Amino acid sequence: xxxxxxxxxxxxxxGHTALDDVSLTIPRGSVYGLLGPNGAGKTTLIRIINxxxxxxxxxxxxxxxxxxPEDIYxxxxxxxxxxxxxxxxxxxxxxxxxRLKGLSRRDALKxxxxxxxxxxxxxxxxxxxxELSKGMAQKVQFIVTVLHEPELLIFxxxxxxxxxxxxxxxxxxxLALRDKGATIIFSTHNMSSVEELCDHITLINRSKNILSGNxxxxxxxxxxxxxxxxxxxxxxLLRAAxxxxxxxxxxxxxxxxxxxxxxxxxxxxxxxxMIATANETVELRSFRELIPSMNDIFIxxxxxxx
Length: 306
Description:
Rossmann fold; six-stranded mixed β-sheet; four-stranded antiparallel β-sheet; 10 helices; single chain
């Protein structure tokens, strides 16, 4: 079942269309990537889902009904533009945001203690936000975003300002939240994170949804039957043996003793024959399909060359 459905949403400003008839469905309990170049319309869509602004046309459904003002308590939003008050103390501010999300003081203090210990930031409770680094402040804002355990979490560039260790910590927490039942919208330009975290994606470009689907299915559907084999033996013999049924793209020599050959197999049915031929001709170590990365697909889609 889908948790969130966007139906034919458009948003216009003076002389500019931010969203043009965008539709998408976000399955319950998934991590959903919302991708696109700067100015594509992602942030506008996120603001509409958060009821910060309203669409000019179209509907947003949460479950099986139209999104209501009170549904904001079922949503947690970590914006790209961070919003902590610099002069307030960390603990005081975290408690303030928790109360805004509907938690009692007692429940908020209990949950904050657990999260502060998990992130190793107990000693920051009485520090002012202006004393924290960007990454430290990011941890605090992440905590207040997830503290009330919302059904829908929206993270806009959540790893900005994090070193690799803390970014990995955050990835683990995001996946743990998904495993506990949360549905997550993840907006980013980091395509490697998309491959690590996202089950489905939508790519918005120039205000339109130009690509949606399961991440692995998208990657495979835009593959080009390109394979790489690793072998030990005579390259010219191998090239001659594989000349029928495939195109040799490039070959490289390796100091490890195993060379590689990249080739394009013209028909799916010929793949098994290519493997058998290579195995008979040289000492074959590996044979693998080269699936395009989400970064490659993103660039090709935005440039109109998919």
